[in-house]
Design a protein that fits this description.
There is one protein chain. By secondary structure, the protein is mostly helical. It has one domain (14-389). Helix content is 52%, strand content 10%. The chain has helices at 14-65, 71-84, 86-115, 131-140, 148-155, 158-170, 175-215, 248-255, 338-343, 347-354, 356-364, 386-389; strands at residues 220-226, 277-282, 300-305, 308-309, 316-317, 328-334, 374-377, 380-383. Strands 1-2 form a two-stranded antiparallel sheet. Strands 3-6 form a two-stranded antiparallel ribbon. Strand 4 and strand 5 form a beta hairpin. Helix 1 (14-65) packs across helix 2 and helix 5 packs antiparallel against helix 7. It is globular.
Length: 390
């Protein structure tokens, strides 16, 4: 494929324009979901932080009253801490299910609107579920092979904390250090809670879109994988991947530009915190009963996210990542799939996104396209190892 300059719009067929309209609407809705997730998580985590703070204050007071430090007493306090967190676990699970339910109910409305072209398509079957129904579904729907309750339980890794406590004891740390370690563990729990919530909101969003498409299968031709158009995790000179961004598997699936059967293709979401969507391919405007041949030209948005350069090593390093993700440095528009986007990036950003060795194989022609980075086995996408690409 030939890269296209930002803002340049080649001649497009009516079908390509139709797909682009739906793509823009889908991306716009994904942005709205991001805003909703951030606001909802801030409220949920604020309540959980307050509850955890009160528990830690209680634990610290009891620890200070003990005459001496011992493994038995430390583990007894840890068990008490775990018991007191039961209410927090329950609140977290219910909170994520509630966020998922509200987001899912709105996802059905939006995807009905997107796939029907705001009701213009004739004989379109609208599909909807209530927030209460979707909240219940979230509790029973596995994501990444786990139920919501199992994800929440794993976020409170008592085994890891016990190991940390024993490490502290071997170093001769006292009870104040125990509390500091519990605070560090809570920071990781907060990150896990954010990942779980985002994963479930996206899973129900993808599920809603597919329900609507399946209910109108007679007007669907299939679907394409659509990832976020942004740079990926940064890579150090040693070739080790770090940071966050669109993952190699997802950008490669987008770059394949392949149309899958409505109920076929690779499993989506591909992994926890996956933000990818199905881009549905519908019949033409006229076949849908919409008397339109031409529409205003539009293009797919892209995002370049924050990074920095280590002044001593020259390596690309990440900026601090908060609830809202890496800072946005640049935005714009392009036409095509991730392959088109990738070809327009600077060599440094290309290297950051797929890594130095894969970039060498790509530039040498040993990899014909980014889509060659993955294979689909038993309905699941798998990133090929470097030795498999050479």
């Amino acid at each position: 494929m030939v890269g296209r300059k930002w803002g340049h719009y080649p001649t497009m067929t009516p079908q390509e324009k139709l797909q682009l309209v739906q793509l823009i609407q889908s991306i716009s809705w994904r942005f709205s979901l991001d805003q909703f997730e951030t606001a909802a998580l801030e409220r949920l985590l604020k309540a959980l932080d307050q509850a955890n703070s009160e528990i830690l204050t209680m634990i610290e007071a009891r620890a200070a009253a003990l005459p001496s430090w011992s493994e038995e007493r430390a583990l007894a306090l840890l068990d008490e801490y775990s018991d007191l967190q039961l209410a927090i676990k329950s609140h977290l699970g219910m909170g994520i299910a509630e966020i998922t339910g509200v987001a899912g109910a709105n996802s059905y409305l939006v995807h009905n609107d997107i796939l029907s072209f705001s009701g213009l398509a004739k004989d379109f079957n609208n599909v909807s579920l209530t927030a209460a129904q979707l909240q219940q579904m979230a509790q029973e729907m596995p994501v990444g092979g786990r139920l919501l309750s199992e994800w929440v339980e794993s976020a409170f890794d008592t085994a890891f904390v016990r190991q940390e406590i024993m490490t502290g004891m071997l170093k001769g740390e006292g009870y104040p250090a125990l509390v500091r370690r519990l605070l560090q563990e809570w920071d990781m729990t907060r990150e896990d809670a954010t990942l779980i919530a985002r994963s479930y909101v996206q899973a129900v969003n993808v599920h809603a879109a597919h329900d609507v498409a399946t209910a109108n299968k007679e007007i669907m031709r299939g679907w394409k994988w659509q990832s976020a158009a942004e740079n990926g995790a940064y890579y150090t000179k040693s070739g080790k991947g770090r940071g966050r961004g669109v993952c190699l598997t997802c950008l490669a699936l987008d770059a394949r530009d392949e149309v899958y059967p409505l109920n076929g293709g690779p499993e989506i979401p591909a992994h926890p915190n996956c933000r990818c969507n199905r881009q549905y391919i519908t019949k033409s405007w006229r076949e849908l009963g919409i008397p339109i041949d031409e529409i205003e030209k539009a293009a797919r948005p892209y995002t370049l996210r924050g990074k920095g350069i280590d002044p001593e090593t020259g390596e690309i390093v990440p900026l601090k990542i908060g609830t809202g993700g890496r800072p946005i440095l640049d935005v714009g528009h392009f036409l095509g799939d991730y392959e088109d986007f990738f070809k327009l990036l600077s060599p440094a950003i290309q290297k950051q996104t797929i890594g130095p060795r894969r970039l060498e194989l790509y530039n040498s022609g040993k990899i014909k396209g980014l889509g060659d980075l993955v294979t689909i086995e038993m309905g699941k996408a798998r990133l090929l190892l470097l030795k498999e690409l050479q």
